Amino acid sequence: MGQLNLHEGRALLADGSAITLENFPEICNSWSSMYRGDYNGRPVCVKIWRGEGLLLPSRKRTVFLRKLLQEVLAWQAMSHPNIGTVHGVLFTLYKLPSVVTPYYPNGDINAYVSNNSCTDLRALV
After folding, report:
1. Domain 4-124 classified CATH 3.20.20.70?
2. What pLDDT, in 10s, does the model give residues 23-69?
3. CB 66: neighbour CB atoms within 10 A?
4. Cβ contacts of residue 49 below 8 Å, gap of 6+?
5. Half-sphere exposure of 53 toward its Cβ, with a 13 Å CA cutoff?
6. CB neighbours of 85 closer than 8 A, spacing ≥ 6?
7. C-alpha closest to that of 25 among 49, 8, 2, 47
8. How far apart, in Å, are the Cα atoms of 24 and each of 41, 55, 122?
9. Which ranges constitute the DSSP H helices of 56-118?
10. In angstroms, rounded to a whole number, what is the distance separating the alpha carbons of residues 93 and 55?
11. Roughly how many angstroms between the first and final C-alpha of the chain, as a whole number?
12. Would you list the domain boundaries of the chain?
């Protein structure tokens, strides 16, 4: 897992490679923002968590990061055609935690099913 630094629309990884981010998040809610980006010619999604207690060192931040890393490690160990991969956990502007995954143009499963009402749900399991 690498270090990520945002600078004028580019996220630089510790190994020197870069993720180019769009200027505005594609999805934004009260706890996170999701940006579309490009990593070595592949579209990626960068989900940046934010919220109370995540900016400054605190017990709440430590507990959140420990749980996040544990979940991402479990996610990375999975291999199934219906489970997306994860590239890793990075830290963005203000050291906020981010997860980098492939970008899926149809969104998550809920968005896909909403937009494709004739989909056989059994085929998605």
Report:
1. no
2. 888 888 888 888 998 888 889 998 888 776 677 778 888 888 888 88
3. 10
4. 31, 32, 64, 68, 96, 97, 98
5. 9
6. 76, 101, 102
7. 47
8. 20, 21, 35
9. 59-77, 109-115
10. 10
11. 30
12. 4-124
34 CB neighbour count, 10 Å cutoff: 19
Task: Write down the residue that tokens 């291999």 correspond to.
Answer: 79
Give Cα separations from 72 to 61, 89, 124 (angstroms): 16, 7, 22
Length, in residues, of the chain: 125
**Tokens 């017990």 found at:** 59
Token pair recorded at residue 101: 């995954």
Secondary element (H or E) of residue 34: strand 32-39
Residues 7-25 pLDDT 10s: 444 555 555 567 788 888 8
What's this model's pTM, rounded to 2 decimal places? 0.73
Whether the CB-CB separation of 91 and 97 falls below 8 Å is answered with yes
